[in-house]
Amino acid sequence: YLVCMEKLNKYVPGAFGTNLDVWSSLVSLMAYPHPWIMQVSSRIVSGHLSAIDYKELARNGSDSLLAKVPGSLYDIARNSCRQLDVEDRLHVDATCTIAIKNITTAFKIMKLRPDLCYEPEATNENENEELNPKGKSKDPCLWLMARLSNIAKPRGKLRRESVFKCFAALCTSCSPADLVRYLQLMIDPIDRDVRDKAGKARRGDFEDNDPRDALPKEVLQILEDTCGTDNYVKAYAKVSKNARQKKDKRKQDIASEAIHDPVASAQRKVSRGKHEQERKKRRMDENRSSRGGGRFKKNRDY
Hints:
68% of the residues lie in helices and 3% in strands. By secondary structure, it is mainly α. Strands 1-2 form a two-stranded antiparallel sheet. Helix 3 (35-50) runs parallel beside helix 7 (93-112), helix 6 packs antiparallel against helix 7 and helix 12 (215-227) packs across helix 13 (229-260). The longest helix is centred in the C-terminal third of the chain and has 32 residues, at 229-260.
């Protein structure tokens, strides 16, 4: 059914332009827990978004389904973010690529028509319609950038890589003036990833043979080139200051715990020691395997 709809929409553009239920179903299927269904529905939605005339949309005279179904733009951005927010074992490159494209287009439309993210709702007092935001923020772009930033904070190489690619796509397709306000939200998870890799390198856990490890620094350079060095330096300084404050607070909390709850502090140290032993053992096994050792014992003649 989805394949038929995709081909029909490709050869007969606007075939379901008047069927709002079909559009709502396609947007909902973007979050369906099946990679193939998720991918096909996202492709159909992406085809419609790429055909939107921005000038006509700005004049509020567009025949786009986004204007006919208020709130669907928010649902598209939310479901696209859900496609990026998956564990590495569930990561699908094709799905993430379409999600990045949809998020980039949704961001530009949000800047142009933020009202499309809200659905009208009739009040109980009168029949007049008022805007009922589906998102928590009055600025939908701020909500979207904060969502992407939070997705990239937990550890997960492929998940972080997808979000960083999304930041790079936004820089290449959007106006720099539209991105300066959200510079800290983009720098924060990238700086966190750089610091995590630096910590692994100091512990000897980091392997520098993967070319994709250079992606965070490349995206930082793209952010600086797009938003300007002055804006970039100011935002990076604030991110570094916040990171130091959080680190100092964690140290204070640990020191306070050692005084007020020595049992929990001792358990923390024991758990940390076990984790360190497992890390060293895992590292030794990896080094032994890379040298081809541990399989055969050497024959010695005495």
